[in-house]
Write a structure and sequence with these properties.
The chain has 16 helices and 31 strands. With 606 residues, it is α+β, with helices and mostly antiparallel strands. The strands form 8 sheets. The chain has a 7-stranded mixed β-sheet with strand order 4-7-2-1-12-15-14. Strands 8-9-10-16-13 form a 5-stranded antiparallel β-sheet, with no helix packed on it. Helix 9 crosses helix 16 and helix 10 packs across helix 11.
Protein backbone atom coordinates (compact mmCIF):
# COMPACT_ATOMS: atom_id res chain seq x y z
CA UNK A 1 0.00 0.00 0.00
CA UNK A 2 1.53 3.31 -1.07
CA UNK A 3 1.86 6.29 1.28
CA UNK A 4 -0.59 8.33 -0.82
CA UNK A 5 -3.18 5.55 -0.68
CA UNK A 6 -2.64 5.11 3.07
CA UNK A 7 -3.05 8.86 3.52
CA UNK A 8 -6.26 8.81 1.44
CA UNK A 9 -7.67 5.94 3.54
CA UNK A 10 -6.78 7.85 6.72
CA UNK A 11 -8.64 10.93 5.49
CA UNK A 12 -11.70 8.83 4.66
CA UNK A 13 -11.55 7.20 8.10
CA UNK A 14 -11.32 10.54 9.90
CA UNK A 15 -14.17 11.93 7.82
CA UNK A 16 -16.28 8.88 8.69
CA UNK A 17 -15.50 9.32 12.42
CA UNK A 18 -16.41 13.02 12.21
CA UNK A 19 -19.61 12.24 10.34
CA UNK A 20 -20.58 9.60 12.92
CA UNK A 21 -19.91 12.03 15.78
CA UNK A 22 -22.04 14.68 14.14
CA UNK A 23 -24.79 12.15 13.47
CA UNK A 24 -24.93 11.37 17.21
CA UNK A 25 -25.36 15.06 18.05
CA UNK A 26 -29.02 16.01 18.38
CA UNK A 27 -30.34 19.52 17.84
CA UNK A 28 -33.77 20.65 18.98
CA UNK A 29 -35.40 24.08 18.99
CA UNK A 30 -38.28 25.36 21.07
CA UNK A 31 -39.89 28.62 19.96
CA UNK A 32 -42.13 30.75 22.18
CA UNK A 33 -43.73 34.18 22.07
CA UNK A 34 -43.77 35.82 25.51
CA UNK A 35 -43.99 39.36 24.11
CA UNK A 36 -45.42 39.23 20.61
CA UNK A 37 -46.82 42.76 20.90
CA UNK A 38 -43.19 43.93 21.25
CA UNK A 39 -42.18 41.83 18.19
CA UNK A 40 -40.02 39.26 19.95
CA UNK A 41 -39.38 35.57 19.31
CA UNK A 42 -37.91 33.49 22.16
CA UNK A 43 -35.70 30.63 20.97
CA UNK A 44 -34.22 27.76 22.95
CA UNK A 45 -31.70 25.58 21.11
CA UNK A 46 -30.69 22.31 22.76
CA UNK A 47 -27.60 20.53 21.44
CA UNK A 48 -26.91 17.10 22.94
CA UNK A 49 -24.34 14.39 22.29
CA UNK A 50 -21.47 16.86 22.08
CA UNK A 51 -17.92 15.54 22.27
CA UNK A 52 -16.07 18.84 21.83
CA UNK A 53 -14.68 21.31 24.36
CA UNK A 54 -16.17 24.19 22.39
CA UNK A 55 -18.82 24.74 19.75
CA UNK A 56 -19.46 27.68 17.45
CA UNK A 57 -23.11 28.69 17.11
CA UNK A 58 -23.84 30.67 13.93
CA UNK A 59 -26.67 32.74 12.49
CA UNK A 60 -27.01 32.89 8.66
CA UNK A 61 -26.32 36.27 7.08
CA UNK A 62 -28.70 35.94 4.11
CA UNK A 63 -31.83 34.15 2.91
CA UNK A 64 -31.58 31.94 -0.22
CA UNK A 65 -33.62 33.41 -3.06
CA UNK A 66 -32.89 36.97 -1.91
CA UNK A 67 -29.35 37.84 -2.91
CA UNK A 68 -28.29 40.37 -0.30
CA UNK A 69 -26.31 40.07 2.94
CA UNK A 70 -28.97 41.02 5.51
CA UNK A 71 -27.00 40.46 8.73
CA UNK A 72 -29.76 38.66 10.62
CA UNK A 73 -27.55 38.51 13.72
CA UNK A 74 -28.23 42.22 14.23
CA UNK A 75 -31.68 41.26 15.60
CA UNK A 76 -30.33 38.80 18.21
CA UNK A 77 -30.11 39.69 21.89
CA UNK A 78 -29.75 38.01 25.29
CA UNK A 79 -27.64 35.09 24.01
CA UNK A 80 -26.85 32.65 26.85
CA UNK A 81 -25.52 29.11 27.17
CA UNK A 82 -26.09 26.67 30.04
CA UNK A 83 -25.43 23.02 30.81
CA UNK A 84 -28.07 20.42 31.73
CA UNK A 85 -27.99 21.60 35.36
CA UNK A 86 -28.81 25.16 34.36
CA UNK A 87 -25.30 26.43 35.10
CA UNK A 88 -23.97 29.17 32.82
CA UNK A 89 -21.22 28.25 30.39
CA UNK A 90 -18.46 30.65 29.25
CA UNK A 91 -19.00 32.13 25.79
CA UNK A 92 -17.71 34.90 23.57
CA UNK A 93 -18.86 36.42 20.31
CA UNK A 94 -16.00 35.91 17.88
CA UNK A 95 -17.39 37.63 14.79
CA UNK A 96 -20.58 39.30 13.58
CA UNK A 97 -22.66 36.10 13.46
CA UNK A 98 -20.79 33.53 15.59
CA UNK A 99 -20.94 32.79 19.33
CA UNK A 100 -18.27 30.40 20.71
CA UNK A 101 -19.45 28.33 23.68
CA UNK A 102 -17.04 26.54 26.02
CA UNK A 103 -18.88 23.30 26.80
CA UNK A 104 -16.65 22.42 29.77
CA UNK A 105 -17.01 18.81 28.61
CA UNK A 106 -20.80 18.90 29.00
CA UNK A 107 -22.50 16.68 26.44
CA UNK A 108 -25.67 18.79 26.48
CA UNK A 109 -25.84 22.55 26.00
CA UNK A 110 -28.88 24.81 26.04
CA UNK A 111 -28.67 28.03 24.09
CA UNK A 112 -31.26 30.76 24.65
CA UNK A 113 -31.65 33.96 22.69
CA UNK A 114 -34.30 36.41 21.55
CA UNK A 115 -34.90 37.75 18.05
CA UNK A 116 -36.49 41.11 17.34
CA UNK A 117 -38.79 40.55 14.34
CA UNK A 118 -40.40 43.68 12.94
CA UNK A 119 -39.63 43.92 9.22
CA UNK A 120 -42.46 43.33 6.78
CA UNK A 121 -41.30 41.44 3.69
CA UNK A 122 -41.47 37.92 2.29
CA UNK A 123 -37.85 37.29 3.33
CA UNK A 124 -37.76 38.64 6.89
CA UNK A 125 -39.51 37.65 10.12
CA UNK A 126 -42.37 39.68 11.55
CA UNK A 127 -44.18 39.27 14.86
CA UNK A 128 -46.97 41.29 16.41
CA UNK A 129 -50.02 40.63 18.58
CA UNK A 130 -51.95 39.13 15.65
CA UNK A 131 -49.49 36.58 14.26
CA UNK A 132 -45.88 35.49 13.80
CA UNK A 133 -44.13 34.90 10.51
CA UNK A 134 -40.81 33.12 10.96
CA UNK A 135 -38.34 33.34 8.09
CA UNK A 136 -35.96 30.59 9.30
CA UNK A 137 -32.57 32.04 8.31
CA UNK A 138 -33.26 34.96 10.61
CA UNK A 139 -34.53 32.83 13.50
CA UNK A 140 -32.63 29.55 13.75
CA UNK A 141 -28.91 29.21 14.42
CA UNK A 142 -26.77 26.22 13.52
CA UNK A 143 -23.70 24.50 14.94
CA UNK A 144 -20.70 25.16 12.74
CA UNK A 145 -19.81 21.96 10.89
CA UNK A 146 -23.23 20.40 11.53
CA UNK A 147 -25.28 21.92 8.75
CA UNK A 148 -26.22 18.41 7.60
CA UNK A 149 -27.53 17.32 11.00
CA UNK A 150 -31.29 16.88 11.44
CA UNK A 151 -33.25 19.16 13.76
CA UNK A 152 -36.65 19.34 15.40
CA UNK A 153 -38.64 22.52 16.02
CA UNK A 154 -41.37 22.78 18.65
CA UNK A 155 -43.65 25.81 18.36
CA UNK A 156 -45.44 27.13 21.42
CA UNK A 157 -48.05 29.49 19.95
CA UNK A 158 -49.15 32.51 21.93
CA UNK A 159 -52.34 31.72 23.87
CA UNK A 160 -54.40 33.77 21.39
CA UNK A 161 -53.17 31.80 18.36
CA UNK A 162 -54.40 28.42 17.18
CA UNK A 163 -52.75 27.47 13.87
CA UNK A 164 -49.31 26.65 12.47
CA UNK A 165 -48.60 26.49 8.72
CA UNK A 166 -45.29 25.18 7.38
CA UNK A 167 -43.86 22.78 4.82
CA UNK A 168 -41.84 20.98 7.51
CA UNK A 169 -42.75 17.39 8.35
CA UNK A 170 -44.72 16.91 11.55
CA UNK A 171 -43.47 14.75 14.41
CA UNK A 172 -46.60 12.78 15.21
CA UNK A 173 -45.52 11.78 18.69
CA UNK A 174 -45.20 15.37 19.90
CA UNK A 175 -47.65 18.26 19.60
CA UNK A 176 -46.68 21.23 17.39
CA UNK A 177 -43.30 19.69 16.65
CA UNK A 178 -41.68 19.53 13.22
CA UNK A 179 -38.70 17.75 11.71
CA UNK A 180 -36.05 18.86 9.22
CA UNK A 181 -33.66 16.35 7.72
CA UNK A 182 -30.92 19.01 7.69
CA UNK A 183 -30.50 22.74 8.10
CA UNK A 184 -30.80 23.44 4.37
CA UNK A 185 -34.35 22.12 4.66
CA UNK A 186 -35.00 23.94 7.94
CA UNK A 187 -33.76 27.24 6.47
CA UNK A 188 -35.99 26.66 3.44
CA UNK A 189 -39.20 26.16 5.43
CA UNK A 190 -40.96 29.34 6.61
CA UNK A 191 -43.44 29.06 9.47
CA UNK A 192 -46.68 31.01 9.97
CA UNK A 193 -48.21 30.99 13.47
CA UNK A 194 -51.51 32.67 14.25
CA UNK A 195 -55.15 32.44 13.25
CA UNK A 196 -54.73 32.28 9.50
CA UNK A 197 -57.59 31.15 7.28
CA UNK A 198 -56.50 27.79 5.85
CA UNK A 199 -57.96 25.92 2.89
CA UNK A 200 -56.68 23.12 0.67
CA UNK A 201 -56.85 21.84 -2.89
CA UNK A 202 -55.34 18.90 -4.71
CA UNK A 203 -53.55 19.20 -8.05
CA UNK A 204 -51.04 17.00 -9.90
CA UNK A 205 -51.26 14.46 -7.09
CA UNK A 206 -50.10 16.98 -4.48
CA UNK A 207 -51.97 18.31 -1.46
CA UNK A 208 -51.75 22.10 -1.42
CA UNK A 209 -52.39 24.14 1.72
CA UNK A 210 -53.15 27.86 1.43
CA UNK A 211 -52.74 29.97 4.59
CA UNK A 212 -54.37 33.38 4.16
CA UNK A 213 -53.11 35.94 6.67
CA UNK A 214 -54.61 39.35 7.34
CA UNK A 215 -58.09 38.97 5.85
CA UNK A 216 -59.18 39.79 2.31
CA UNK A 217 -62.03 39.65 -0.18
CA UNK A 218 -60.83 36.43 -1.82
CA UNK A 219 -63.12 33.73 -3.16
CA UNK A 220 -61.82 30.37 -1.91
CA UNK A 221 -63.66 28.33 -4.50
CA UNK A 222 -62.28 30.40 -7.35
CA UNK A 223 -58.74 30.35 -5.95
CA UNK A 224 -58.79 26.59 -5.49
CA UNK A 225 -59.77 26.08 -9.12
CA UNK A 226 -57.45 28.71 -10.60
CA UNK A 227 -54.39 27.87 -8.51
CA UNK A 228 -54.86 24.20 -9.39
CA UNK A 229 -54.77 25.10 -13.11
CA UNK A 230 -51.42 26.83 -12.64
CA UNK A 231 -50.00 23.86 -10.74
CA UNK A 232 -51.10 21.46 -13.47
CA UNK A 233 -49.77 23.62 -16.32
CA UNK A 234 -46.35 23.89 -14.71
CA UNK A 235 -46.17 20.24 -13.71
CA UNK A 236 -46.89 19.35 -17.34
CA UNK A 237 -43.69 21.16 -18.40
CA UNK A 238 -41.45 19.02 -16.20
CA UNK A 239 -43.57 15.86 -16.24
CA UNK A 240 -43.34 15.33 -12.48
CA UNK A 241 -44.20 17.19 -9.29
CA UNK A 242 -41.59 16.39 -6.63
CA UNK A 243 -43.75 17.18 -3.59
CA UNK A 244 -46.47 15.42 -1.62
CA UNK A 245 -47.40 18.55 0.32
CA UNK A 246 -47.00 22.22 -0.65
CA UNK A 247 -47.83 25.36 1.37
CA UNK A 248 -48.74 28.85 0.16
CA UNK A 249 -48.41 31.47 2.91
CA UNK A 250 -50.17 34.63 1.71
CA UNK A 251 -49.76 37.87 3.66
CA UNK A 252 -52.36 40.54 2.95
CA UNK A 253 -51.77 44.27 3.17
CA UNK A 254 -53.60 47.40 2.03
CA UNK A 255 -51.33 47.16 -0.99
CA UNK A 256 -48.77 44.42 -1.39
CA UNK A 257 -46.86 42.12 -3.67
CA UNK A 258 -43.72 40.07 -4.03
CA UNK A 259 -42.87 36.49 -3.20
CA UNK A 260 -40.06 34.21 -2.12
CA UNK A 261 -39.71 30.61 -3.18
CA UNK A 262 -38.93 27.64 -0.94
CA UNK A 263 -38.45 23.91 -1.38
CA UNK A 264 -42.09 22.94 -0.81
CA UNK A 265 -43.66 26.27 0.04
CA UNK A 266 -43.75 29.93 -0.86
CA UNK A 267 -44.51 33.24 0.84
CA UNK A 268 -46.57 35.76 -1.12
CA UNK A 269 -47.61 39.34 -0.54
CA UNK A 270 -51.04 40.42 -1.82
CA UNK A 271 -53.47 43.32 -1.73
CA UNK A 272 -56.14 42.57 0.84
CA UNK A 273 -59.03 43.92 -1.23
CA UNK A 274 -57.56 43.25 -4.67
CA UNK A 275 -59.24 39.95 -5.47
CA UNK A 276 -62.40 41.49 -6.96
CA UNK A 277 -60.38 43.61 -9.39
CA UNK A 278 -59.68 41.42 -12.43
CA UNK A 279 -56.30 42.97 -13.26
CA UNK A 280 -55.11 42.70 -9.66
CA UNK A 281 -56.44 39.15 -9.42
CA UNK A 282 -54.64 38.09 -12.62
CA UNK A 283 -51.45 39.68 -11.29
CA UNK A 284 -51.83 37.57 -8.16
CA UNK A 285 -52.18 34.44 -10.31
CA UNK A 286 -49.02 35.51 -12.14
CA UNK A 287 -47.24 35.74 -8.79
CA UNK A 288 -48.48 32.26 -7.88
CA UNK A 289 -47.21 31.00 -11.25
CA UNK A 290 -43.81 32.64 -10.73
CA UNK A 291 -43.13 31.30 -7.26
CA UNK A 292 -44.52 27.84 -8.00
CA UNK A 293 -42.30 27.54 -11.10
CA UNK A 294 -39.35 27.96 -8.74
CA UNK A 295 -40.33 24.57 -7.29
CA UNK A 296 -38.31 23.21 -10.22
CA UNK A 297 -36.29 26.16 -11.51
CA UNK A 298 -33.90 27.25 -8.68
CA UNK A 299 -34.99 24.96 -5.87
CA UNK A 300 -34.00 21.82 -7.78
CA UNK A 301 -32.76 22.75 -11.24
CA UNK A 302 -30.22 25.34 -10.19
CA UNK A 303 -26.94 27.05 -11.06
CA UNK A 304 -24.06 25.13 -9.53
CA UNK A 305 -23.25 27.95 -7.08
CA UNK A 306 -26.71 27.88 -5.49
CA UNK A 307 -26.32 24.86 -3.25
CA UNK A 308 -25.03 23.55 -1.02
CA UNK A 309 -25.19 27.05 0.42
CA UNK A 310 -22.60 29.03 2.29
CA UNK A 311 -24.70 30.90 4.87
CA UNK A 312 -21.73 33.04 5.96
CA UNK A 313 -21.18 34.99 2.76
CA UNK A 314 -22.30 35.70 -0.81
CA UNK A 315 -22.93 32.78 -3.19
CA UNK A 316 -22.06 34.19 -6.62
CA UNK A 317 -23.52 33.03 -9.92
CA UNK A 318 -23.78 34.61 -13.37
CA UNK A 319 -26.96 32.61 -14.08
CA UNK A 320 -29.72 34.41 -12.18
CA UNK A 321 -31.00 35.43 -15.62
CA UNK A 322 -31.97 31.75 -16.01
CA UNK A 323 -32.99 31.14 -12.40
CA UNK A 324 -35.18 34.26 -12.16
CA UNK A 325 -35.46 35.57 -15.72
CA UNK A 326 -36.77 32.31 -17.15
CA UNK A 327 -39.19 32.05 -14.24
CA UNK A 328 -40.39 35.59 -15.05
CA UNK A 329 -40.89 34.48 -18.66
CA UNK A 330 -42.91 31.44 -17.69
CA UNK A 331 -45.15 33.15 -15.13
CA UNK A 332 -47.02 35.18 -17.78
CA UNK A 333 -46.82 32.33 -20.29
CA UNK A 334 -48.38 29.87 -17.83
CA UNK A 335 -51.16 32.35 -17.04
CA UNK A 336 -51.78 32.48 -20.79
CA UNK A 337 -51.70 28.68 -21.16
CA UNK A 338 -54.22 28.36 -18.34
CA UNK A 339 -56.49 30.75 -20.30
CA UNK A 340 -56.48 33.47 -17.64
CA UNK A 341 -55.08 35.86 -20.26
CA UNK A 342 -55.90 36.11 -23.94
CA UNK A 343 -52.98 35.84 -26.35
CA UNK A 344 -53.32 39.57 -26.96
CA UNK A 345 -53.06 40.35 -23.25
CA UNK A 346 -49.98 38.16 -23.05
CA UNK A 347 -48.37 40.13 -25.88
CA UNK A 348 -49.26 43.34 -24.05
CA UNK A 349 -47.30 42.08 -21.04
CA UNK A 350 -44.40 41.20 -23.34
CA UNK A 351 -44.50 44.72 -24.78
CA UNK A 352 -44.25 46.03 -21.23
CA UNK A 353 -41.04 44.09 -20.60
CA UNK A 354 -39.56 45.17 -23.93
CA UNK A 355 -40.34 48.85 -23.32
CA UNK A 356 -39.01 48.69 -19.76
CA UNK A 357 -35.71 47.14 -20.86
CA UNK A 358 -35.17 49.23 -23.97
CA UNK A 359 -35.92 52.51 -22.19
CA UNK A 360 -33.43 51.86 -19.40
CA UNK A 361 -29.99 53.31 -20.22
CA UNK A 362 -28.33 50.67 -18.05
CA UNK A 363 -29.21 47.97 -20.58
CA UNK A 364 -26.31 49.28 -22.73
CA UNK A 365 -23.94 49.30 -19.76
CA UNK A 366 -24.52 46.07 -17.82
CA UNK A 367 -24.83 42.62 -19.38
CA UNK A 368 -27.23 39.94 -18.13
CA UNK A 369 -24.43 37.80 -16.74
CA UNK A 370 -22.98 40.84 -14.94
CA UNK A 371 -26.42 41.74 -13.59
CA UNK A 372 -26.67 38.23 -12.15
CA UNK A 373 -23.22 38.20 -10.60
CA UNK A 374 -23.55 41.70 -9.12
CA UNK A 375 -27.00 41.15 -7.62
CA UNK A 376 -25.37 41.14 -4.18
CA UNK A 377 -23.97 44.65 -4.51
CA UNK A 378 -26.20 46.31 -7.13
CA UNK A 379 -29.50 44.51 -7.70
CA UNK A 380 -30.69 44.75 -4.09
CA UNK A 381 -28.94 48.06 -3.36
CA UNK A 382 -30.28 50.48 -5.98
CA UNK A 383 -29.41 54.15 -5.87
CA UNK A 384 -30.35 57.26 -7.84
CA UNK A 385 -28.04 56.23 -10.70
CA UNK A 386 -29.02 52.56 -10.96
CA UNK A 387 -31.33 53.17 -13.92
CA UNK A 388 -28.34 54.48 -15.86
CA UNK A 389 -25.98 51.64 -15.00
CA UNK A 390 -27.90 48.40 -14.42
CA UNK A 391 -30.52 46.13 -15.94
CA UNK A 392 -32.81 43.64 -14.23
CA UNK A 393 -32.03 39.98 -14.79
CA UNK A 394 -35.76 39.40 -14.29
CA UNK A 395 -37.05 41.51 -17.19
CA UNK A 396 -34.19 41.10 -19.65
CA UNK A 397 -33.78 37.47 -18.65
CA UNK A 398 -37.44 36.90 -19.54
CA UNK A 399 -36.85 38.47 -22.97
CA UNK A 400 -33.83 36.26 -23.65
CA UNK A 401 -35.97 33.28 -22.63
CA UNK A 402 -38.50 34.39 -25.26
CA UNK A 403 -35.71 34.66 -27.84
CA UNK A 404 -34.49 31.14 -27.04
CA UNK A 405 -38.03 29.75 -27.07
CA UNK A 406 -38.77 31.21 -30.51
CA UNK A 407 -35.35 30.26 -31.89
CA UNK A 408 -35.85 26.62 -30.86
CA UNK A 409 -39.45 26.53 -32.11
CA UNK A 410 -38.26 27.88 -35.47
CA UNK A 411 -35.25 25.59 -35.85
CA UNK A 412 -37.27 22.47 -34.98
CA UNK A 413 -40.35 23.54 -36.97
CA UNK A 414 -42.39 23.61 -33.80
CA UNK A 415 -41.47 20.14 -32.54
CA UNK A 416 -39.31 21.43 -29.64
CA UNK A 417 -39.27 24.50 -27.45
CA UNK A 418 -37.80 25.93 -24.25
CA UNK A 419 -40.07 23.59 -22.24
CA UNK A 420 -38.04 20.67 -23.57
CA UNK A 421 -34.77 22.29 -22.51
CA UNK A 422 -36.05 22.89 -18.97
CA UNK A 423 -37.34 19.33 -18.64
CA UNK A 424 -34.13 17.81 -20.01
CA UNK A 425 -31.99 19.94 -17.70
CA UNK A 426 -34.12 18.97 -14.70
CA UNK A 427 -33.79 15.28 -15.48
CA UNK A 428 -30.07 15.44 -16.25
CA UNK A 429 -28.77 17.64 -13.46
CA UNK A 430 -31.25 17.32 -10.61
CA UNK A 431 -32.59 13.79 -11.03
CA UNK A 432 -29.55 11.99 -12.47
CA UNK A 433 -26.52 13.96 -11.31
CA UNK A 434 -27.95 15.57 -8.18
CA UNK A 435 -26.05 18.82 -8.69
CA UNK A 436 -26.33 22.25 -10.19
CA UNK A 437 -25.43 23.13 -13.76
CA UNK A 438 -22.75 25.40 -15.19
CA UNK A 439 -23.44 28.11 -17.73
CA UNK A 440 -21.75 26.03 -20.43
CA UNK A 441 -23.87 22.97 -19.58
CA UNK A 442 -27.14 24.89 -19.87
CA UNK A 443 -26.07 26.38 -23.21
CA UNK A 444 -24.99 22.96 -24.51
CA UNK A 445 -28.35 21.39 -23.62
CA UNK A 446 -30.29 24.22 -25.28
CA UNK A 447 -28.15 23.81 -28.42
CA UNK A 448 -28.70 20.05 -28.40
CA UNK A 449 -32.49 20.39 -28.09
CA UNK A 450 -32.69 23.20 -30.64
CA UNK A 451 -30.16 21.78 -33.07
CA UNK A 452 -28.58 25.23 -33.46
CA UNK A 453 -25.64 27.26 -32.21
CA UNK A 454 -26.51 29.82 -29.56
CA UNK A 455 -23.14 31.59 -29.68
CA UNK A 456 -24.60 34.75 -31.17
CA UNK A 457 -27.43 35.00 -28.61
CA UNK A 458 -25.03 34.45 -25.72
CA UNK A 459 -22.35 36.79 -27.07
CA UNK A 460 -24.78 39.62 -27.82
CA UNK A 461 -27.61 39.34 -25.31
CA UNK A 462 -26.27 37.40 -22.33
CA UNK A 463 -22.62 38.42 -22.06
CA UNK A 464 -22.91 41.56 -24.17
CA UNK A 465 -25.09 44.66 -24.33
CA UNK A 466 -26.16 44.56 -27.99
CA UNK A 467 -29.86 45.48 -28.46
CA UNK A 468 -32.06 42.41 -28.87
CA UNK A 469 -33.24 41.87 -32.46
CA UNK A 470 -36.89 41.39 -31.51
CA UNK A 471 -38.05 41.62 -35.11
CA UNK A 472 -36.13 38.54 -36.22
CA UNK A 473 -37.38 36.29 -33.43
CA UNK A 474 -40.99 37.52 -33.44
CA UNK A 475 -41.10 37.03 -37.20
CA UNK A 476 -40.68 33.29 -36.61
CA UNK A 477 -44.20 33.45 -35.15
CA UNK A 478 -45.62 35.67 -37.89
CA UNK A 479 -45.44 38.79 -35.72
CA UNK A 480 -43.73 42.15 -36.09
CA UNK A 481 -42.65 44.87 -33.69
CA UNK A 482 -43.23 48.57 -34.29
CA UNK A 483 -41.76 51.51 -32.39
CA UNK A 484 -44.61 54.00 -32.12
CA UNK A 485 -42.37 56.37 -30.19
CA UNK A 486 -40.28 57.08 -33.29
CA UNK A 487 -42.64 59.80 -34.44
CA UNK A 488 -42.88 61.52 -31.03
CA UNK A 489 -41.94 65.19 -30.84
CA UNK A 490 -42.46 65.62 -27.08
CA UNK A 491 -39.93 67.94 -25.41
CA UNK A 492 -37.57 66.13 -23.06
CA UNK A 493 -35.19 67.34 -20.36
CA UNK A 494 -34.24 63.97 -18.88
CA UNK A 495 -34.79 64.61 -15.19
CA UNK A 496 -37.55 63.91 -12.70
CA UNK A 497 -38.27 65.76 -9.48
CA UNK A 498 -40.72 65.64 -6.59
CA UNK A 499 -41.97 68.17 -4.09
CA UNK A 500 -40.44 67.64 -0.65
CA UNK A 501 -41.27 70.07 2.15
CA UNK A 502 -42.30 72.61 -0.47
CA UNK A 503 -39.07 72.22 -2.45
CA UNK A 504 -38.81 70.68 -5.94
CA UNK A 505 -35.99 68.15 -5.54
CA UNK A 506 -34.38 66.27 -8.45
CA UNK A 507 -34.46 62.50 -7.87
CA UNK A 508 -33.24 61.13 -11.21
CA UNK A 509 -31.15 62.27 -14.18
CA UNK A 510 -31.15 60.17 -17.35
CA UNK A 511 -27.81 59.27 -18.91
CA UNK A 512 -27.13 61.19 -22.14
CA UNK A 513 -30.07 63.58 -21.70
CA UNK A 514 -30.05 67.38 -21.73
CA UNK A 515 -30.23 67.37 -17.94
CA UNK A 516 -27.25 64.99 -17.77
CA UNK A 517 -25.16 67.11 -20.14
CA UNK A 518 -26.09 70.35 -18.35
CA UNK A 519 -24.78 69.07 -15.02
CA UNK A 520 -28.13 68.93 -13.22
CA UNK A 521 -27.66 66.72 -10.15
CA UNK A 522 -29.84 64.49 -8.04
CA UNK A 523 -30.76 66.39 -4.83
CA UNK A 524 -30.62 69.77 -6.60
CA UNK A 525 -33.54 72.01 -5.70
CA UNK A 526 -35.05 73.40 -8.89
CA UNK A 527 -36.06 76.99 -8.15
CA UNK A 528 -36.86 78.45 -11.57
CA UNK A 529 -36.75 77.75 -15.29
CA UNK A 530 -36.15 80.68 -17.62
CA UNK A 531 -36.77 83.13 -14.80
CA UNK A 532 -40.05 81.68 -13.54
CA UNK A 533 -40.52 79.70 -10.35
CA UNK A 534 -41.64 76.10 -10.84
CA UNK A 535 -43.26 73.45 -8.65
CA UNK A 536 -43.89 70.87 -11.40
CA UNK A 537 -40.91 69.98 -13.56
CA UNK A 538 -42.72 67.78 -16.09
CA UNK A 539 -45.43 70.36 -16.70
CA UNK A 540 -42.89 73.13 -17.22
CA UNK A 541 -40.79 71.07 -19.65
CA UNK A 542 -43.93 70.11 -21.57
CA UNK A 543 -44.53 73.81 -22.29
CA UNK A 544 -41.17 74.06 -24.10
CA UNK A 545 -40.28 73.16 -27.68
CA UNK A 546 -37.63 70.78 -28.96
CA UNK A 547 -34.48 72.83 -29.53
CA UNK A 548 -35.25 75.48 -26.91
CA UNK A 549 -32.25 76.71 -24.92
CA UNK A 550 -33.33 76.74 -21.29
CA UNK A 551 -31.87 78.29 -18.14
CA UNK A 552 -32.37 76.25 -14.97
CA UNK A 553 -31.87 77.94 -11.63
CA UNK A 554 -31.04 75.51 -8.82
CA UNK A 555 -29.92 75.50 -5.22
CA UNK A 556 -27.19 72.96 -4.52
CA UNK A 557 -26.29 72.63 -0.87
CA UNK A 558 -27.32 76.25 -0.36
CA UNK A 559 -25.36 77.62 -3.34
CA UNK A 560 -27.34 79.17 -6.21
CA UNK A 561 -26.39 77.97 -9.69
CA UNK A 562 -27.65 78.58 -13.22
CA UNK A 563 -27.42 75.71 -15.70
CA UNK A 564 -27.94 75.72 -19.47
CA UNK A 565 -29.87 72.92 -21.16
CA UNK A 566 -31.05 72.44 -24.74
CA UNK A 567 -34.44 70.67 -24.84
CA UNK A 568 -34.41 67.52 -27.00
CA UNK A 569 -36.99 65.17 -28.45
CA UNK A 570 -38.21 62.45 -26.09
CA UNK A 571 -36.15 59.37 -27.08
CA UNK A 572 -38.45 56.88 -25.31
CA UNK A 573 -39.30 53.72 -27.22
CA UNK A 574 -42.92 52.65 -27.41
CA UNK A 575 -42.95 49.18 -28.89
CA UNK A 576 -46.05 47.35 -30.01
CA UNK A 577 -46.25 43.77 -31.21
CA UNK A 578 -48.51 43.28 -34.19
CA UNK A 579 -49.58 40.49 -36.48
CA UNK A 580 -47.48 40.41 -39.65
CA UNK A 581 -49.23 40.56 -42.99
CA UNK A 582 -49.11 37.43 -45.15
CA UNK A 583 -47.64 35.16 -42.44
CA UNK A 584 -46.79 31.71 -43.80
CA UNK A 585 -48.48 28.53 -42.63
CA UNK A 586 -45.28 27.55 -40.82
CA UNK A 587 -45.13 30.91 -38.99
CA UNK A 588 -48.78 30.60 -37.97
CA UNK A 589 -48.14 27.08 -36.73
CA UNK A 590 -45.24 28.28 -34.56
CA UNK A 591 -47.36 31.16 -33.27
CA UNK A 592 -50.16 28.81 -32.33
CA UNK A 593 -47.73 26.50 -30.55
CA UNK A 594 -46.03 29.38 -28.71
CA UNK A 595 -49.20 31.19 -27.65
CA UNK A 596 -51.44 28.15 -27.20
CA UNK A 597 -53.79 29.33 -29.97
CA UNK A 598 -56.38 27.52 -32.03
CA UNK A 599 -56.51 30.19 -34.74
CA UNK A 600 -54.14 32.73 -36.21
CA UNK A 601 -55.75 35.99 -35.08
CA UNK A 602 -54.17 37.41 -31.94
CA UNK A 603 -54.87 41.08 -32.43
CA UNK A 604 -58.57 40.74 -31.79
CA UNK A 605 -57.87 39.47 -28.29
CA UNK A 606 -55.82 42.49 -27.19
Amino acid sequence: MTYKFKHFIAILFMAAISSLANAQTKIAFEVSFTEPQAHYVDVEMEVSGLKKDQVDIKMPVWAPGSYLIREFAKNVESFTAKNAKGESLPLEKINKNTWRVNTQKNGKVKINYRVYAFEISVRTSFVDASHAFLSPTGIFMYVDGMINNPATVTINPHKSWSKISTGLETVKSKSNTFYAENFDILFDSPIEVGNQDVFEFNASGVRHEVAMVGGGNYDKSRLKKDMAKIVEEETAIFGVNPNKHYVFIVHHYSSGGGGLEHLNSTVLGASRLGYTNENTYKNFLGLVAHEYFHLWNVKRLRPVALGPFDYDSENYTSNLWIAEGFTAYYDNLVVRRADFHTAGKYLNALEGDINLVENQPGTRIQSLSESSFDAWIKGYRPNENSRNTTISYYNKGALVAMVLDLAILNSTKGSKRLDDVMKAMYEEYFVKKGRGYTDAEFKAMAEKIGGISLNSIYDKYVNGTVPIDYQTYLSYAGLKIVDEGNAATDPFLGASATLKDGKLIVNNVVRGSAAWDSGLNVNDEVIAIDGYRVNELDKTVASKKVGDNTKIQVSRDGALLELQARITRNPAKKYRIMQAENASAEQISIRNKWLNLKDENVMGSK
